[in-house]
Structures are given as structure tokens and as C-alpha cells.
Design brief:
Elements lengths: L3 H10 L14 H4 L2 H24 L4 E3 L4 H5 L8 H7 L9 H18 L3 H5 L5 H8 L6 E3 L2 E4 L2 E4 L1 E3 L12 H22 L15 E8 L2 E8 L6 E4 L1
Antiparallel strand pairs: 1-5, 2-3, 3-4, 6-7, 7-8
Helix pairs in contact: 1-6, 3-8, 3-9
This protein binds zinc ion.
Amino acid sequence: MESYYKKAINRIHNINIEQYLNIANKRYEEVRSRGEYTADATLIAEYYRRVVVLLQFMSKDSASILMGMSKVIHPHNEPIDIDRLLDICPNLKEIDFMILRIICCNYLQWCSLLDTGNPIAMKYHDIYEPMMKLIERGGGRISIHHHELVGGFGAFSRSISTSRGDMEEFDISDRALERRIKEVEHAEAYLKAYKLGASDTYTCLRCGNKLIIQENKERCGVWYKIKCETKHCYDQNFH
Ligand SMILES: [Zn+2]
């Protein structure tokens, strides 16, 4: 059977580099759609959730987004550094995003821990799935700014803390992510029609109930809340 480590290397080799070329100086909105960033945020939120579950199991309070999860289990494991990563996966030389590279290092290290058959690692074997999916789908342009992980999706705290508490699992299947993107496109179309003065009504793609737009004026401009009439259903803010 192919080792986890080998599979991980293959996976990194297969990342489509094209989507990361010449985007470093572009504004976020020039690179990906609002819907894609919403799907990215779902993947990151699911990674945070999985990390919290592992931290709770290990009786630890928090971990940085940059910390490798194998270190949570084996604090003294020798890390895979960026130089070694670029030797193993030279295709990443063309992607100059530091956080993306660090996540790939941590992923490789996690997979080599899986190859030792470590039972705790095996229990949480797919902890990196959301982040690898994020990178594969082109959402790996993330950076650290002060205490936050930032990207076109907005910001997450850089520290992943168990005080986030138990959260419900996010569906990160391709189908669910595509649905997230469609929902945002649908809401954007509604907002566009609304701004043009059209009186069309749009219904929620999740439940079929009516969507409503609330206009909010603030000193810095106008923003809109688009939400479903059903409680705890669709609810997102737009500009
Ligand atoms: Zn709904």
C-alpha cells in the first residue's frame, strides 16, 4: 500500500500552480468571486473545528494556525522545513505564499506520523483535508496580519482556541462547496436587481422561503443584509 507520505507528495505535486501565478499584487476581488471566498471560509472553519477536537482530546488550550498538528501529539518531532519541502515538491517554488508552504510542510509531517501508525494521528487522520482542499481549489492565498489569518474571505483568529467550543461539522464535499458558491451568486443577483429598483422576489436556495434584503446606512457607506425568512437559514452581509 502506498504510504500516506507518498500520497501527500503526489497531492502537492498535483496542485494546479497556474491559479497562483501573478496574483500576489492583485486585489482579492480580482482573483476570486465572493462565492468562492465564502466556500474558502467554510473550509478554514472546518479545519479550525477539527483542530479544536484534537486539542480537546490532547487536553491543550490552543494552537497557532502555523503549528503542525503532529507537534501537538509529538512535541519533539523534527519539523520538515521550507527548504526541504521545496526539494521534495519543487512545483511549490513558483508559489511564493509563505502560509501555504508552511501548511504543506505540516501536512507532510502529519502524513509521516500517520505512516508510523500512531493511534491518535490515525483517529484524526483527515485533519488536513480542509486546508489541502482549500489550496487545491485556489484559495491558498492567505497571510498573517497581526493576530489574524487574512484572505479574501475576511479574517480568522490566528490562534485556534478550544474556547471556540464544540461546533457542528461543516460539509466540505465538493457538492456542498459548490452550493455555497451558488447561494452567494443568487444573493448577489438579487441585490443587483434590488439596486436597479426591480421588485422581483428571490427565494432561498436552501429552503424555498422568501429572501429579504435589509439596507443599512453607516458613515462608511451602505451595506446590505440578505437573509432568509426562515430562522437560522441563509444570512450574509454584502456591500
Ligand atoms: Zn432558507
